[in-house]
Design brief:
The chain is an alpha/beta fold. The chain has 9 helices and 7 strands, in the order βαβαβαβαβααβαααβ. Strand 2 (33-38), helix 2 and strand 3 (60-64) form a beta-alpha-beta unit. Bound molecules: NADP nicotinamide-adenine-dinucleotide phosphate (NAP). Residues 14-20, 37-40, 43, 66-68, 89-92, 139, 141-142, 186, 188-189, 191-194 line the site of NADP nicotinamide-adenine-dinucleotide phosphate (NAP).
Length: 262
């Protein structure tokens, strides 16, 4: 299936590794020019070269910086001539006990997992509406549907973003103009983030890393973790020309882990 988005420009945030990289890879395969960001220059440049090799016809621009800061966002936005596709992503907050979180911890989580996405949408959505094409995907978490107690910072901040998106995706001047805004909710995917959270869980539960990882895997009906490629494939479809009627949705990609009917 040709997704019909060749020559579009995408900003994919936090994309040197993991799910963001999966999204950038799938978009580049479809002929989309991309700006990718991450804080660490080395991994970012390596990913940019990989993407360029996958599709030498597209432009791949790497902007090193912290997307949760105003400066990081400004540099990312300045790199592209226009943004047709925006994939919002940033690192997830640390696990812990809510009794120990300070106001500063909350502000950092809100900045990373709610306010940065809102700022980037604010900066790009009206241009998308004027051009009658826009696709915004927010990478949130399965924890929005099924909260994980030790990830309270994530549960809270991402739920805030989800509520905000539900309202604006349905604004006439956005939805009517072929601009869609959706959230993709990852379950458990094989990335550095999964390794870090498993390490923390293993220490907290007095288990080995392998035992903790196996316990997580065994709880997934699909019997395995997801891959960044699978995540990227869904993201690219949601960003495609064919997905113009899909908006304001929360798409859970979790191998069947969420046990509810809907
Ligand atoms: P990952 O493999 O650790 O990759 C994170 C990427 O984001 C890296 O490229 C990292 O590069 C970049 N990054 C982190 N903070 C950044 C910042 N402030 N500014 C710019 N770039 C930043 O993580 P992942 O598994 O892909 O997770 C992506 C998101 O999905 C996270 O919010 C995570 O909590 C959420 N999630 C993941 C899973 C899962 O199973 N993997 C499940 C639910 C939710 P630098 O460190 O160099 O900046």
């Amino acid at each position: 299936m040709n997704l019909d988005i060749q020559d579009r420009w995408a900003l994919v945030c936090a994309a040197s590794k993991g799910l963001g990289k999966g999204c950038a890879t799938a978009l580049v395969r479809e002929g989309v020019n991309v700006v990718i960001t991450a804080r660490g220059r080395e991994a970012l440049d390596a990913t940019a070269s990989e993407l360029q090799q996958i599709n030498p016809r597209v432009k791949v621009l790497a902007v090193a910086g912290d997307i949760t800061t105003r400066e990081g966002r400004e540099q990312a936005l300045l790199a592209a001539p226009r943004i047709d596709i925006l994939v919002n992503n940033a690192g997830g907050p640390p696990p812990g006990d809510f009794r120990s979180w300070s106001r500063d911890d909350w502000i950092a989580a809100l900045d990373a997992n709610m306010l940065t996405a809102i700022e980037l949408i604010k900066a790009t959505v009206d241009g998308m509406s004027e051009r009658r094409f826009g696709r915004i995907v927010n990478i949130t978490s399965g924890a929005v549907k099924a909260p994980i107690d030790v990830l309270g910072l994530s549960n809270g901040a991402r739920s805030g973003l989800t509520g905000f998106i539900a309202g604006i995706a349905r604004q006439k001047r956005i939805a009517e103009r072929n601009v869609t805004i959706n959230n993709i909710l990852p379950g458990l995917f094989e990335t550095d983030r999964l390794r870090q959270s498993t390490d923390a869980a293993a220490k907290a539960q007095g288990k080995s890393f392998d035992e903790a990882l196996e316990a997580k895997r065994a709880a997934i009906p699909a019997g395995r973790f997801g891959t960044a490629e699978e995540f990227g494939a869904l993201c690219a479809f949601v960003c495609s020309a064919h997905a113009g009627y899909l908006t304001g949705q929360n798409l859970l990609l979790d191998g069947g882990a969420f046990p509810g009917t809907m």
